[in-house]
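Worked example 2:
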Amino acid sequence: MQISMNGSWAPRLGVLLLVAGALSLAGCEQKKSVDSAQVAATVNKQEITLPQVNLVLQQQRGLRPEQLEAASAQALERLIDQELAVQKATELKLDREPRVQLLLEAARREVLARAYLDKADEAAAIPGADEVAKYYEANPALFKERRIYNLQEFAIEASPEQVVQLRTKMAATKNGAELIEYLKANDMRFSGNQAVRAAEQLPLPSLGTIAAMKDGEAVLMPTPNGALVVVLAGSRSQPIALDKATPAIEQFLLNARKRELIASDLKALRAGASIAYAGKFAEAAASAPAGGSASAAAASFAPAASEAADAASHAKDGGLK
């Protein structure tokens, strides 16, 4: 079973550092004097500033106050190494290479597009208490009926006929041990795994099925090579109260609203633009569903969320262990 958790969008550190290096590689050094109080280090007469250090720190999610000093020092050392590499790259005229120029322009476009879309989604309204309560009630498996699941997972190689037989056998199987005996007796190859998963750590498409299961029950899901069998060896209730879940649900709903705003904005921009596809892309564009490109673009820029998994996870972190 694949377990996935998504968080809100954050700019990739590599992209931001690439842009910082791009300014030097392109020969766009700051001409204005920098306040000496804002200088963190000087590398061969090139200044590294506190805002640059802070920009790196902003990408480190979950940084605690007591970690700030050490993290700042580490960030500065990384910027120093980067500046040395940038200076050497400039000396070697790497900034004139076509591929490097493409990367620099791509980074610049990424940051500018992100800045515009950040501006566009500022109009998103914070969800009200009624919306939060409605979402809480609509997702009991993540909140008020949240459970911690002890799962036994079996990835089984089997033919379609064997999968049918296996499904029949599972109806009479009481636990994972009996299933293992059956698989061995029928010379079926399999791999097993046992894990403890909270509700928000399960893929949402599977959560409803597992939440409806009782301890000792199993579910079979066909796969290209056979089947995945999940046995609920045990579980315990660990609900999250509405007051604990509220901040995270608000953020999740706000992110969803921002995605909608961005998708709408991109759709309007496309409608008002002249876009002509060429070559092989022309045929693909002609057969693509209307609005698909704008939706895909919005998903790539907007804060990501896995349909409430983040909300439950952050609510749990805020109060329940």
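The CA atoms of residues 159 and 175 lie 23 Å apart. Residues 242-271 form the longest helix (30 residues).
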